[in-house]
Predict the structure.
Amino acid sequence: MPRRNDINKILIIGSGPIVIGQACEFDYSGTQACKSLQEEGYEIVLINSNPATIMTDPIMADSIYMLPMTTDSIKEIVAKEKPDAVLPTMGGQTGLNLARDLEKEGFWEANGIQIIGVDIDAVELTEDRQLFRDKMEEIGIEQCKSRQAESLLDAKEIKEELGGLPIVIRPSFTMGGAGGGIVWNEDEFDQKVLRGLEMSPVHSVLIEECIFGWKEYELELLRDANDNVVIICSIENMDPMGVHTGDSVTVAPTQTLTDKQLQILRDAAIKMMRSIGTFAGGCNVQFAMEPGSDRFVAIEINPRVSRSSALASKATGYPIAKVATKLAVGYTLDELKNQITGTTSACFEPSIDYVVCKVPRFNFDKFVGADEELSTQMKAVGEVMSIGRNFPEALNKAWQSMEVGRDGLGADGYEELDRKHVSERLKKPYWDRSLQIRNAFKLGASVEEIADITKVDPWFLQQIRYMVSLENRTEGQSLITIEKDDLYELKQAGFSDTQIAWLLSKSNGVVTEDEVREKRKSLGLKPVFKLVDTCAAEFPAQTPYYYSSYEGENESEVTDRKKVVILGSGPNRIGQGIEFDYSCVHAVLATKEMGYEAIMINCNPETVSTDFDVADKLYFEPVYWERVLDIIEHEKPEGVIIQVGGQTALKLGKRFLKEGIKIFGTDFEMIDFAEDRGQFSDLLIKLDIPFPEYGTAFNEEEALKIADRIGYPVLIRPSYVLGGQGMRIAVKEEELKRYVGRILKTHPENAFLIDKYLEHAVEVDVDSVYDGEQLHIAGMMQHIEPAGVHSGDSTAVLPPYSLSDEVIAKIEEYQEKIAAAMEIQGFLNVQYAVKDEKVYVLEANPRTTRTVPFLAKATQRPEAAIGVKVMLGAKLSEFDLESKLDCWAIKEPVFPFDKFPGVKKELGPEMKSTGESIYFAKDFNDEHFKKPFEFKSLYLSK
């Protein structure tokens, strides 16, 4: 059946601000849906309050409404736009819940709007734990024993029926496992049940028998209106049941299932999908399997694209959300082509000849006192994905992608081989479990011992033990004596040159990463680049989508076009999130428009920048020096763009300089200069621009002397960090000692700054673009909270709401002076503090920032593209720089405190928000301004 012609205008509901459990994978899905509908000529109306996403860019829809994610907003849009259909499956739980609420009211039917891509009854069935249980029993699919509770009394009775603790709590209609978890003892039972009941929008929880330690699997399916079903990807959790799949290390395809077991799960998944409704679209099914037997239970089914859909799409190259959207508007799978090969049918299930590993990224360091134990409630803020020819290679590459200062899975000089510490970390699931398994093998533990403690399948343990055996074999060798075959085996297992150098340094003096690189290149050991083609090389692929490996032939052909490499921002974390991916995507598009071949390097599966059809060429690789240099040596670009990838890309700048690789835009010496507070302050003195008194320290003694000189309170901050990592306000000596101790532990190599903290000052964020002659101020945002609250955590207003004309003029003057003196070519962000009408400069960042997407959406100017084109040689006079903002735009941060009960809700110089929304206010009587203004100083802390 071809596309439907009875509908012309489609409303897409987005997912709103980024929160833990619902992150930018829905920006990716939503963007794919928009592209898919654009190809078919439909008119697209979009609601999403998230300014940081590509999804809310003018290029994505005909009409974009950046309104609060409420049913009232949707009613307002419908009254104006009168859409024929609504697609709610791309907006995570937010989108589905809104669609469901309006369906219950009879709103869609009353307005003649068809719901496409999902059956709301199917959502009800899968989200209501008891209805789902009844349906599974009806079709003969086994479930954990459980019963629905609507009160604490119900819960206590059910607990006894199930044989006592441990039990699992699963609130109905929540996402990311919110409010759920395992209850191990009586002390926490009441508290956890009541929390689950409160967090469930329908105030009910499922009390379920605990199958902690079973193996967990996911299958991603697609079904069309003719009931054709394809299974896109099978995914296995390395962590056993009890850890939310978003927090688990996962591997695709499944590694430990027999053919028979995989077939059992495939059959069950298809049976389940067919039982819950007649919708056409994507579906995710989760199973648990008892170790050592074929017994399995169904955990849940999600009749929509999910977090795992993004991972499965990037792992296989099969664009699930794009195809699901085509199915939603009437196509059947046999009518669609595979977008990777361009010739085969979308009915063909992907076949992959490599291993994909996803490792989650956490930010517990931001929330002192947070419970770090992983459970059924998701806590990860992002993830990395890596591709290798085998599991060890994929796992090592994932750890190189993580941005936690590691060069792979251990063997990199950060050893923590304390037997007691390793033993404690293995007893419960923590974020670094795979590393601690490696450490346990280093200490002589056996596969059986570790399997007994962790319940991780022995197959994974054997793979990590093999990695440790390679380490042990290498430690006794030297750079001269190591054989080519040994070096080759290490590289095939994903070991970085830095890891190998560290292993070789153990017994024969210091060996450097560069020496290992030269040695392997002299032996002809260079990586090849393999194509992600969905069909295990059975058919030629049209898409330029690659990963590196040390095996077989090179499949990445180099063109003779001028090229630019754009470095992505790696995994999402607090302080560096989707906003940088937004700038990365615009950098790619701008680079193409300037006539270059755009090559993207990134490892984040949730993002639009790692979509196969965004860049001219995509390398799904760690943004890690060795991997980046391998690609540059292969592609030989004109240069690189590092100013759009956050700290991830910037920290490689010195390496590019040393290798003589051109960095487009502002000279890297100036980017580095801005981080050197001493040099930058000398420049401000020369320019006659005030700044708070400060000093630079390397140890506690120096810090105390500086604080005594400038007077408390003081602001402590490490250099070269993003999101205010490690920054604190100290009001007395003992606090300063404590914070300095932490910084010396986490950033021992960096100088850190002790600034005079300006109490009760107003903070102002200014983003601009400078082309060497002209300054364009993209936006001047005034924070509602006082200086001392990180700019990413502040409610900010554009344009300023209470600054005098004199102060605004002074800020503009300083911005231009700094841009000219630093010879900026492209982006420049400066943060100011205003106290008693005096303007102080706090810091300057010659790069794109978290606020660039917000300003672009508020003013309707493509700020990221303008900045990148200027970096590549364009002049500001070529652009229309008129702002279309005719009211006030308010940036409203969103915090994850509900995920960390027991952590104090306090704001300070270290960023804690996971996302933001935009709100357009006509005046200052609006609650969105009045409320934060009323509470502006309430949560300010150190």
Summary: The two ends are 61 Å apart (CA to CA). The chain has 31 helices and 33 strands.
